[in-house]
Amino acid sequence: MVGLEITHSSMKFASVEDSKFGFEEVVLDFNKGLKEQVIAFIRHLQEKFGRFEKLGVAVSGVVSKHKDRVLYSRHFAELTATDFIKNVESECSVKIYLENDANAAAWAEYKLGAGRGSESIFYVLLGKGVGGAFILDGGIWRGADGFAGEIGQIPVDTEENLRLEEVASSDGIVRRIKNRIHQDHTSSLARISEELITITDIIREANNKDEFTQMMLERTGNFIGIAVANALNLLNVEKVILGGSIMQAGEPILKGVKQSAEIYTFKPGFNSAKIISGELGDRASAIGAALLAS
Q1: Average per-residue pLDDT in the chain?
Q2: Which of 141, 164, 226, 287 is the most exposed, having the fewest neighbouring CB atoms within 10 Å of its CB?
Q3: What is the pLDDT of residues 183-224, one digit of tens each?
Q4: Structural domains of the chain, ranges and CATH numbers in brackets
Q5: Distance (Å, rounded) from C-alpha 125 to C-alpha 131?
Q6: What's this model's pTM, rounded to 2 decimal places?
Q7: How high is the pLDDT of residue 205?
């Protein structure tokens, strides 16, 4: 089983065999078209690992439930072209199974990660964007046309009209920290020029126990917890799993999510749910894509 995730900056390949994983990643060249890079990478993989007839592809964007195409992609307008997938299939002689990245990651955690043995989960993908996915009754619940789980669109601050993705995506976290860093000169982030601070710096310093950074990530978790409470109140899932690259910072975000989810969730629903970190990290989407193509 093989899968490919197309992120905003790279392509990640995963092979899955008897719960053993193989990985490869290449950085995207923004001076080249996306389709030609996808085709070249798949051909490289076929030469290296042998030809494969099926390939799962996970993308950040809105994937139609009824059409094998991407309806919207914030990062790559090229993905929404009706012939994108068909052309890649034709050029590489492979059948592609297309899926949203959050759905693919949720499926991976459900089958091989933190969701093993669960009847229902809600998965939250935290990265360049914020996505979500439901696993209900042993399958991905996509909604009427494939748009279910878009937790990033939930309002979390009605006074400033902010949606979750605006505050909890990597860009949102960086922006909020840049707006506050001048108020805390003791933070190790203050040694970096404000305009140069990246999400990588933030995750690193949080893991180094920088108090300001951990506080800001905990507050990020508070925002996420408001949206998670909505999911728990509506569907009473067994587990909420937090994944994606931002969860490399781990504990501060998880702590913040639990704090506010407990406040805003109907008490019995909160008590019956587990809110945990994913086990497969930022490779979950590629692994899930591989599983869905089996």
Answers
A1: 94
A2: 141
A3: 888 999 999 998 999 999 999 999 999 999 999 999 999 999
A4: 2-104+284-292 (3.30.420.40), 118-278 (3.30.420.40)
A5: 5
A6: 0.94
A7: 96
Spatial CB neighbours of 217, under 8 Å, sequence gap ≥ 6: 173, 202, 206, 249, 252, 253, 256
CA count, 13 A, side-chain hemisphere, 239: 20
Residues 242 and 122 sit within 8 Å (Cβ to Cβ): no
Judged by DSSP in three states, 27 sits in: strand
Condensed to tens digits (0 to 9), the pLDDT of residues 54-112 reads: 999 999 988 987 777 888 888 888 888 778 999 999 999 999 999 999 999 999 999 99
- Closest to 164 in 3D by CA, of 126, 202, 212: 126
User: Encoding tokens for residue 126?
Assistant: 């935290």
In angstroms, rounded to a whole number, what is the distance separating the alpha carbons of residues 236 and 220? 23
Range from 48-52, 58-62, 133-137 that averages highest in pLDDT: 133-137
Residue in 46, 128, 49 with CA at minimum distance from that of residue 88: 46
Strand, coil or helix: 59: strand
Structure tokens at 288: 């899930």
Residue among 212, 209, 220 at smallest CA distance from 244: 220
What DSSP character marks residue 51?
Answer: -
Structure-block tokens of residue 267:
């008490």
Is the pLDDT score of 140 beyond 90?
Answer: yes
* Contact (Cβ atoms closer than 8 angstroms) between residue 259 and residue 217: no
